[in-house]
Amino acid sequence: MATQSSSAHFFLSWAKERIDEMDATLASLENKSAQMQAETRVKADQFIAEMKKKRDEFEGTVKKQAAAGEGAWDGAKVRLETEWKGFQAETAKYLETFGKGIEQQQVVFQSQVAAQLKAWRETADKLNAAGKEFAIERRREIDATVSRMKADAVTAEKKLQDVARAGTESWSALNAALADTRATFDRANQAAREAFKRATGSSPAQ
Question: What are the residue boundaries of the structural domains of the chain, listed by start?
């Protein structure tokens, strides 16, 4: 796993986690809008269309940066983080307008939880497979990092499900819980990136 390709992997993992959450959010909102009365549904669908546009813009930026050098990714992440926050703000506005009930908020929350945890597992599996390219003595740190990521995913799942079971949290509280576990994922992803860099710099792949 070359340094350049491994660095690209971590950038794309960071971005894909957010795209997956966007897709899950949009799918849950579309399912709910289908049950609305005609006039309300038209307004809701217009809102969803704008959210889809933001999602597509985010993915477009990711694709443009995927082929760029590592130095460009840090700047891209700053822009993408702003776009991501814009999507989150639109989600909050949508729920405030069309989904004031706890049920709708819980549906969106659970869809985002599922997407986030799936991203954790997929990333851990990819890192585990990529780590096997290295000699055993250089693989120990990578294996330890992957193990920590998997353990963090289990902890995150428990935390998020505890929040969901409470059933009375506001959307801001639900979103804050997701933001907290997402930040943990980002830190784990960064730690893995650094472990791969050290392994690549210290030992040739086997």
Answer: 3-202
* Residues pairing with 205 in the sheet: 134
Interval 147-175: pLDDT, tens: 999 999 999 999 998 888 877 668 888 99
Chain-centroid distance of CA 38 in Å reads 33
Collapse the DSSP code of 86 into the 3-class scheme (helix H, G, I; strand E, B; otherwise coil) and give the result: helix
Q: What is the SS3 assignment for 134?
A: strand
Structure tokens at 37: 């009365």
pTM of the predicted protein model:
0.85
Spatial CA neighbour of 56 closest among 44, 46, 64: 64
Residue whose C-alpha is closest to residue 16's, from 159, 122, 114: 122
Q: What is the DSSP string of 121-164?
A: HHHHHHHHHHHTTB-HHHHHHHHHHHHHHHHHHHHHHHHHHHHH
